[in-house]
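URGENT: need a sanity check before tomorrow's submission.

F., can you look over the DUF6926 domain-containing protein record below? I want to be sure the sequence and structure line up before it goes out.
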Amino acid sequence: MNRSIEAIPTWSLCYIINGDASGLTDEEIRMVDEAMRKNNIEIVSPRYNEDMCTEPYFSHYPFFGLPTEVEDCDIIYHE
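Structure tokens as predicted:
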């Protein structure tokens, strides 16, 4: 297993972490599923600061999709 830190779009986190696809389009679901499968991702876990809060920010280069608000997440994947 390998680990990295990636900028994951905030709109996708409920689906990735909890399996809740409500509010997502079929295209968004397909995009998330493809990114997870293509990169052999097992676990996505948002990184928390000392106040136990996440720190979303805008990124021109998220892990997948168009520029958007993202959160840094620990990614566990296998090769």
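My own read: The chain has one domain: 2-77. Residues 2-77 form one domain. If you see anything odd, call me.
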